[in-house]
Amino acid sequence: MNVNQSAPPVPPFGQAQPIYPGYHQSSYGGQPVPPTPYGTYNGPVPGYQQTPPQGVSRAPPSSGVPPASMAQASCGQAAYGQFGQGDIQNGPSSTVQMQRLPGSQQFGSPLGPVVSQPPVLQPYGPPPTSTQVTAQLAGMQISGAAAPAPPPSGLGYGPPSSLASASGSFPNSGPYGSYPQSQASPLSQAQGHPGVQPPLRSAPPLASNFTPPVSGGPRMPSMTGPLPPGQGFGGPPVSQPNHVSSPPAHALPPGTQVTGPPVPPPPMHSPQQPGYRLQQNGSFGPARGPQPNYEIPYPGAPTFGSQPGPPQPLPPKRLDPDTIPSPIQVIEDDRNNRGSEPFATGVRGQVPPLVTTNFLVKDQGNASPRYIRCTSYNIPCTSDMAKQAQVPLAAVIKPLAKLPPEEASPYIVDHGESGPLRCNRCKAYMCPFMQFIEGGRRFQCCFCSCINDVPPQYFQHLDHTGKRVDAYDRPELSLGSYEFLATVDYCKNNKFPSPPAFIFMIDVSYNAIRTGLVRLLCEELKSLLDYLPREGGAEESAIRVGFVTYNKVLHFYNVKSSLAQPQMMVVSDVADMFVPLLDGFLVNVSESRAVITSLLDQIPEMFTDTRETETVFAPVIQAGMEALKAAECAGKLFLFHTSLPIAEAPGKLKNRDDRKLINTDKEKTLFQPQTGTYQTLAKECVAQGCCVDLFLFPNQYVDVSTLSVVPQLTGGSVYKYACFQVENDQERFLSDLRCDIQKVVGFDAVMRVRTSTGIRAVDFFGAFYMSNTTDVELAGLDGDKTVTVEFKHDDRLNEESGALLQCALLYTSCAGQRRLRIHNLALNCCTQLADLYRNCETDTLINYMAKFAYRGVLTSPVKAVRDTLITQCAQILACYRKNCASSSSAGQLILPECMKLLPVYLNCVLKSDVLQPGAEVTTDDRAYVRQLVSSMDVAETNVFFYPRLLPLTKSPFETTEPPAVRASEERLSNGDIYLLENGLNLFVWVGASVQQGVVQSLFNVSSFSQITSGLSVLPVLDNPLSKKVRGLIDSLRAQRMRYMKLIVVKQEDKLEMLFKHFLVEDKSLNGGASYVDFLCHMHKEIRQLLS
């Protein structure tokens, strides 16, 4: 969405809108909408009575506060008055969608005048006698006047006996919100809202407005709002789509028209005007699909313009998921609106395109969103405002992110022996925001305002605007990201570093030999050593390599180039680990090629008859670290390990896996390491610049929580291949290993985030170690890892100057060069909450919240962590509702435009294996995912929590991916094939009624029954469909940091349960709520906060 775009011209209200009649709506439903018989906005509506019945009349709108008698009552009052709360209608779901009534009506239940006493209800006509009406938010008192009523049995969020716990873990709530079938109404051609006008980022922020249906028939968000001066009801306000002022339905006598002078728009800073709702962007996304809740007469209900007929019972309908915010639609809209233009970073506080949009970045002074993404690009000026909104202020920083080929890597700046220019007081590095004064002889620091002298060799004159004449010749004065070559002062012991080393440490116990792992690995390493990371144009890598094998004891190998055969040295004293040789252990690959090849040939043969099942673990890491220390270099250990280390040695572990602890206060112990040995060891590794990557091949519990401590604290990675079998897992393991070895890594790194006065970094999430409160220490950092930083206020911010972040990473490159990488970002500051909510980024917010929650399980019960997330989300949305959306019926859920996906994504986090495990999820799986997510970037968490579901046979796609559909079982057609991916898993789901020709083309068998369920590779066939699908799978794998193993799942097969686990909009087997249920639960939480 373009921040500055102007609204497209739309026909004035009252004119027929050519887009609507019978058009095919791409937004959600995709069903043609018939034209309707309704009249224009202000004209008489055909079929309406012209004689007002007894009841309420409405005066012309005025800009003042309406009298109490005209205040709008909430829909629940009427509903609960007319029908009992237990009148819930159950029945089959249906896919027919609700369609809108003309915008000239507001949609609610029959209401009477509201005074300060409890409201008196005046329904028009007799109430329905036999028609049952859905109470979709059963248990939620809609009026706010009375205390919440208990939910009818079988419908609430928790067990029938109690209200929901805030954790959102709800048993089956039955037909969540069914409603009578006749309640679809045709959409008015002349209805009073602008056609397909895209929502704009203009003041106040747009809201997505969704009304969970309440008893009394489904109700749609009313669309109200003041009109600009001089504009009658004949045309819409340009900057506020869908804001049409209208009275509540049924509160007007039939046929009464709204007349009166238009009211002036409210000032930006006063978002609330009684009687007029501002932020109600009736539907979600520019092209708007049919929506539920637009109330029309159902059989037995009072009708306008005709005599009420006898009631007729009808089959029920449930809330249509097409009418609540769709991640697929939001992603598609952003791609269409922002994918074509490059994103120039010159403007402060610009919200970048979504991570799911392909776009080019032009660095014009702020760091690319590939390096830094923020939860909000407009932060509150005061801490009180920040506390009120509860939106976490955080940045997800990926300092060494890999850029697409079309974008240039950061320039390297060499200032010679003097080193990079910095502020004397706060030590911030020179950047585009520094202010040069006194003709260029001094500069004022943009972070701390200290005035510094410019060294003579750096002096340059200023132009008439106060900018240095050479600003565009110097990356540090014109770009958001760049590198400085570091001087010797930035090196350990004031000595330039040696090139780093890689040490391969291979488990040769019985399990590793028996599965064929050792042989496979040794074979692969022979060729893989040619692909070690190298700098720019270097012919060969400067990295040296070493080899260790181990079971209960360790074997070191001398592979010096002058030897004819490798020599083995055994260290059996694992309690006091030392490295038995220095010369010949770490060698250059090209020099010792023959000896290394000989060693890799011999290792599988040497241990082929081993019966040793026990292994050690901590001494192996200790040995690798000691070897790097002796060689005086940083480096990385690649550990290949198969079992729980139960041999007598430091770091010995016992099997403590206990599923009985799940959902108890002791569950957190499953995520904590069982011994302090590994934290101590990790601290030593970080001091030495020794990063550990761990490849696990367990057949049973190996205590990932403990074994992953060292990789986690040293900036390393953990890979896990449960029940490894060469034929099934070879491709995945080797692909991960190749990527891991070839990654560009910064070694022995320290990162610091500086901020301008008013905010400071207070909390950090990721794979690193911190010995103080400011420095993030990383023995290694690769291009996939992020560090997430949370900021808090320590003073008032200034709207004019904004807020600045500078991330500085000091690291050793693969060639042994010491460098500083700098990323700068300027953010806006605001005094209005509306501006904060208009500039948030939900994907980054979810990334932060997931990491916050996943760290929380180490110290708090999982249920408490889930409750905290739900409460925070409810507070964020309640604050918006209270301060940025004007007063409206409590039956409406109003979401900020850029946060409308917060509930669906948060529900995915709550249902994830870490926070709500199913019976089949092991403790090790949960620990593995927990540490994996801790350093994921925003794009990875986005697809991990909300997987992509792509239909393979519906749409013709050649070069691009097919359009995704929502992750719900309802979207699956048994005549189609779908591909699902979440960054770690890849499924091909085959419907039972797929055409025989498609089955033949893709699987090379003649019928559905002959497809092998669980197949992990598609046959290579020479036909368009096979090539297309295999090409798509390859391109998806290339986008992800881990290799996704393919699993073919047939409909109605036992593997389908695994596949359905990833259909995150549905209710999960382990008690996770469906999206619809959770949205209603969220609404309830918000209303409790507001009342």
From TrEMBL:
Keyword Endoplasmic reticulum attached: yes
SUPFAM superfamilies, per database record: beta-sandwich domain of Sec23/24 (SSF81995), C-terminal, gelsolin-like domain of Sec23/24 (SSF82754), Helical domain of Sec23/24 (SSF81811), vWA-like (SSF53300), Zn-finger domain of Sec23/24 (SSF82919)
Domain Sec23/Sec24 trunk: 497-738
Stretches assigned to the Zinc finger Sec23/Sec24-type domain: 420-458
UniProt entry tagged with the keyword Protein biosynthesis: no
Occurrences of domain Sec23/Sec24 helical (ranges): 842-941
Superkingdom, taxonomy of origin: Eukaryota
Residue ranges, annotated region (Disordered): 1-70, 82-329
Topological type in the membrane: Peripheral membrane protein
Protein name: Protein transport protein Sec24C
Native source organism of the sequence: Nannospalax galili
